[in-house]
Each structure stands twice: as C-alpha cells, then as structure tokens.
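This section describes the prediction task in plain terms. A model, or a person checking by hand, is given the sequence of a single protein chain and must write out its three-dimensional structure as a string of tokens. No templates, partner chains or ligands are provided. The sample shown here is typical of the held-out split.
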Amino acid sequence: MNLETVVQPKGVKEKKLSSGAIQQLLAFGSLLVLIIFFSLASSSFLQYNNLIGILLSTAVIGILALGATFVIITGGIDLSVGTVMTLSSVMTGVFVVQAGTPIWIGIIGGVLTGAACGFLCGIAIAKLNIPPFIATLAMMMVAKGLALVISGAAPIYFSDHPAFTKISLGSIIPGINVPNAILIFFIMAIIGGVILSKTILGRYNFAIGSNEEATKLSGVNVNFWKITIYTLAGAFTGIAGVLMASRLNSAQPALGQGYELEAIAAVVIGGTSLSGGKGTIVGTVIGALIMSVLTNGLRIMSIPQEWQTVVVGLVIILAVYADMLRKKKD
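The expected answer:
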C-alpha cells in the first residue's frame, strides 16, 4: 500500500483542499466581522496600543495552539498544555534565578521541560496504548503538582535579570514598538507551517490522523512518529512557558490551567478536525486571533468576566458543531 493513498485517496484530494480552503475563508471572515463589530462598538478598539495588546495576548495561546495542531491532526488531544507551560516557566526560573545559570540555558531548560513532558505523553499513548485524553489528563495533573512542589508553591521572580523580560516585551526592530513575543509567535507559525506541509513528519502526521491502521500497513513506524509529534508539541508548549514567564517577569506555579481549552478552541475554530486528518497552521493562527479579539473586545465593552467565559464557551460549542457538520459532508 502506498502512503500517498493513505494521505490523499484518489478523487478526495480536491474535495479536502476545497473544504479546508472554505473553512479558512470562513474563519478569516469571522475574524473580520469581529474586528468591524468591536471597532464600531468602541473607538478605542483600533488604537495601536490595543492592537499590540491583542497580538501580545495571542502569542502565548497561539504558540500553545500551534503545538496542539500537530496532536489534533493525528486524531489525539492534549489537555496538559496549560500546566506543562507553567512547569516550563517554573523550570526556567529554577535554572536562571535559583541555579544562577545564563539566561539562554534557562530558556533551553524550559523548552526541554515541555519537550520531555510531550515525550512522556507520546510514550504513554504509543507504547502503553493509553487513550490520549487519559494520558494527557494525567500529565496535566503531574505537571501542576510538580510546578507547585519545585517552586515551593511560591512565584519565582526574575527581578535581578532585567534582560529576561526583554525576551517577550523588548523589541529587536529599531523604531517600531512591536514586542518580541509577537515576532516569535509568527516565526514559530512559519516553522510549524513548514514542518506540517514540507516535511516527512507533516506527511505522516496527516496519514496517522486519516487512517492509522492503513498507515501501519504501509510500513510506517506509527509509534515512533506519534512520540515525535507529541514531543514536538511539548517543545512548542515549553516555548510558550518561557514567553509567559518573561512577560510576567515571574514564574507563577498556580497559573496555566484553562489555557488548554483556549488552545484547543483556537485549533478547532481554525478548521482542524477533532477526528484527525485535517488542519493547517494558517487556520490555527486565525483561530488564535479570533479568540484574542473576542476576549479583548468583550473586555473593552465592559462585559463582566463571567459572561466573557460564557461567550467563549458558546464559541467553542459552535466550532465543534461546525467540525461535526464538515465531517458529515465529507
């Protein structure tokens, strides 16, 4: 059996491409509608500082969503990204503040922490045959507990390391006040897009999500690639953790839970199917922007926090329902 047959069965390629393109257009159209609506509702929405604030808030959720895209395309799920992000932040603080290592070592330590958590999830799913929901739920709890234990349940501050804050809030472009976190987000999106569309990992990613059994029969080492995909997603989560710590100038061990839902919502809104086999990085970027614009717009309109949560929940339901409709049509 040829792998191309698994990834793109004859006569289905054009349909899938058309469906994906339509979904991206719908997501982009929804983003434009939200921007127009909130612009009319509040004159402060389109102010430069507010737009930068939207992009800055998108950076962390967006990078989490980029990693989650790879996992969801396989037909899996990752509920641990929020607390693994927190653990990565804490480990960055341990290296930089408590161990006194150079900042770049702390960054590597934080990213590797995320990758290690992803690797362990991949092992549990691929080798132990534990369902992704259960494996990543367990990792969510383990990461949450470790973050509290390692930090002593107290924040780790980077006050004596002013250069660390510049990772997120500094600007490497002279004369343009665009925080580095925004640039890092778009760079990671480009890297993720290249990996997903131009590499063998991306091709196997889609193959596993489309038909895992057929992919195995074609001679692909599915277990190896699943572990690789979860490890890659964990590395994205580690990067998000470093950016979060830099933005807050501290590692907050109690932070993180709930971020996984926003990341998954961004992925689904962007057109990635929860049943696997379909998805794009561009769609995820649009989905992350939709989540940030919606949250920011509701806040500017002085909508109470509890109602903001209700609206976001309804958006997630609509996104999943739309995914179900697309699946029936396909």
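For orientation: The chain has one domain: 3-329.
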